[in-house]
Amino acid sequence: MGWTTELYAVYEAAAKDPKSGLLPGAHSTANAQIELTIDEHGMFKDAHTIAKEDAVTIIPVTEDSGSRTSGVSAMPLADKLMYLAGDYGRYVENKRAAEANSAYLEQLSAWANNDLSHPAVRAVLAYLQKGCLMEDLVKSGVLQTEEDGRLKEGAKINGIAQTDAFVRFIVLYDALGHETRTWCDTTLYDSFQRFNARLMGNEKLCYATGTVSPVTYKHPSKIRNAGDKAKLISSNDESGFTYRGRFADKEEAISVSYDFSQKVHNALKWLIQRQGQSYGSLSLVTWATALAPVPDPVDDEPDDEWDEEEHYSSLPLYRDRLRQHILGYGTKLPQGSKVMILGLDAATTGRLSVALYDELLASDFLKNVERWHADSAWRRYDGKRKVNCIKSFSLFDIIRAAYGSEKNGRLECDDKLVRDQILRLLPCVTDGRPVPVDLICVLHQKASHPLSYEHGYCHRIVLETVCGMYRVSKKGEIPMGFDPNETDRSYLYGCLLAIADKAESDTYDEADKAKRVTNARRYWANFAQRPYQTWQTIEERLRPYLDRSGYRVQVEKLIQSVMEKFTPGAFADNSRLDTMYLLGYHHFTAYMYDSHKKEEN
Predict the structure, then answer these.
(1) Rounded distance, CA 33 to CA 50, Å?
(2) pTM summary value
(3) Rounded to an integer, what distance in angstroms lies between the CA atom of residue 53 and that of residue 182?
(4) Number of structural domains, the chain?
């Protein structure tokens, strides 16, 4: 139970800071649609609907109500109209309304009449016992009715049927200085926590802490967001395969104290809300034991401070900047700190699984992240800065390039595919594992078919990505720019393809460059399969463009300079090219553009 122990430690550390925003024990969150204002004596003052962005509300929950899915189980304070309104049946046809309201008032009365009570609880009870909530909400214009006085069918508040609206309370006190918003009142949190502790029983051995404490078999949901129904720990399937065949009953299968469960789940909710990332149904969160900041392993290198082009202009400058950035994280982590990576995925709407869990020394984590960004760095076009720069790749960029489809000039990928591939590629960043060979093969195939993309920019992204991933596979030993001493057959053929592509493109008018396709690109896929045979076709079709442009001598010199590097018999080899040809194409294209800029200067 490593991940639960680490989350428990997070709660204990974060709880020391009253401003952390950590959810208190025996509390959860709900999206409220209606805000009701009363005074300390239970007199109605006002009611209005809540803006969607302000809907998340901290609410006290009992063991039963915190895990309710069906049946009648009242929340201790804020709840749905069916539970709160004694006059609900006058406006809505619902057979369970009277039972729900009775259960709610009985529970609220027990809290209000206890020595651990709170003025807000007594005020809410005094108001709701009058049984006029629905009437007041209708008069205030919050709820819409038909001509017969019943609630209007189909009417919604922030996308929720008004019959199912959730209500929270503001209590106005006679004396100044009290927090009026019940969902923000820490004294109210404390009151319920002490009251709820008295209600807890069923003391048994907690498997997590090794202590005898009140245990629970009803664990919280709403882990990833306020509307999340999936649970991480559940043992309510007595007729299925949750524990049958392994244990006699659920008590043997798992026994976790209520306090431990609350702290673990609330710490996880807090971390996800604070620094989690979502990829479809997958939620991923990374944290350190000391709660110090750590780099996001899914993202590319943080570049909020890297605004000037010279920071990207060479690999040594890039590596130095990257090392300084990673070192900044390391200085904030105590010696021996660990980094945890937890991935949660919902197989069904009710079950949440741990899709990934890894913990490693912070020093190893930072070293592996730095190595990944250093090894995968490639000369790329930065669309934000409109410059060519040295930059690594985020996992999301890699997945879109390998498995995405072009839509509206962008590469987009199915959420489920993104989720699966992130889980597969994440260890390459955090643990230093090799990049899957099949990923490079997929990128190779896509980069070898430029006509599959309507926009050249999308093909350029794929080309840059395969070069970066191939560089990672070679542990960063591939040079960033054109290597004049390279004699690899595939690499040299890629250089020839780059020459033919640019030579023909340079003869186009500016308006035609975005529309027309060069012969090099038209025959690219065939060239990758049969380079010797296809090069003859490309070279033959290039000649008329060279005759018109006047660049024949210059281009022929470039071609000859590459041809001279082929070893005897390598040029006439018509077998398929490997991924090195794409690096050769990219390197020599950049080399030619850089040479052209130098001539202009």
Answers:
(1) 5
(2) 0.83
(3) 18
(4) 4
